[in-house]
Amino acid sequence: MNDKNVIAVVRFDDKKASLDFSCACIEGGINLLEVITIKKNSYEVLSELSNIENVITGAGTVLDLESAKLSYKSGAKFIVSPHTDSDIIKYTKSKGLISIAGAYTSSEIVNAYNLGADYVKIFPASLGGPGYVKAIKEALPFIKLLVTGGINLENSRDYLNAGASLLGISTALTGSGIKPDNKEVVRRSKEFINTTN
After folding, report:
1. Alpha helix (H) ranges present in 6-122?
2. Angle 15-27/182-196 helices, nearest 10 degrees?
3. Is 8 exposed, middle or buried, given 0-12, 13-18 or 19+ CB atoms closer than 10 A?
4. Fewer beta carbons within 10 Å, N or C terminal of the chain?
5. Rounded distance, CA 100 to CA 118, Å?
6. This prediction's pTM
7. Contact (CB, 8 A) for 80 and 61
8. pLDDT tens over the chain, length 197 residues
9. How does 131-151 read in b/e, with b if 16+ C-beta sit within 10 Å?
10. Cβ proximity of 76 and 46 under 8 Å
11. What structural domains and CATH numbers belong to the chain?
């Protein structure tokens, strides 16, 4: 989607926490943000973030067509689903957005690709690790993969070397606290950018 390959996943119920976390990620050099739509205030957060210059904001955990429509109206530039839904993919593409559909097995991944997904999301990536990503890319080198779930500083380069195009990062940026330490988020964001680019 741009020259960077790290997506910061915004998954807080609190609007201020979401916006503060997002700004800390941006300050640290991450300009791809995925706002999880099943959280409170998510569409308001999405709308505000979509107006920030040089930041590409998308919607995550989009489960149905109505959510995809709300995401588009809120300014999303890409739509991420945990599953493959042909209606979501068709709508996303009709609006000129990037479609990222969830799948895991090779059959599911090919199906998502054939339905028009620009990227296929593998979650949880930690289940198969970089070795699984490498095996999928060897068989299906033309399919671009987003990996999420268990990605951290120690293994991020391994996933990229295995062939992943995008890394979805959440806990590795926020830590285990309910509300993130934004200075720590800035520091970790910089580390991810330095490690992966």
Report:
1. 15-27, 42-49, 65-73, 86-94, 106-114
2. 40
3. buried
4. C
5. 6
6. 0.95
7. yes
8. 777 899 999 999 999 999 999 999 999 999 999 999 999 999 999 999 999 999 999 999 999 999 999 999 999 999 999 999 999 999 999 999 999 999 999 999 999 999 999 999 999 999 999 999 999 999 999 999 999 999 999 999 999 999 999 999 999 998 766 677 889 999 999 999 999 98
9. ebbbebbeebeebbbbbbebb
10. yes
11. 9-196 (3.20.20.70)
pLDDT digits (tens, 9 = 90+) for 26-73: 999 999 999 999 999 999 999 999 999 999 999 999 999 999 999 999
Angstrom CA distances, 53 to 32, 49, 74, 126, stand at 12, 9, 15, 33
Cβ–Cβ under 8 Å, residues 120 and 109? yes
Tokens linked to 3? 């020259």
State both tokens at 28: 């640290």
Dihedral (Cα; 99, 105, 108, 111), 10-degree rounding: 80
**CA–CA separation, 184 vs 197, rounded Å?**
20
Q: What's the CA angle centered on 100, arms 24 and 105, to 5 degrees?
A: 120
Tokens matching residue 112: 């998502």
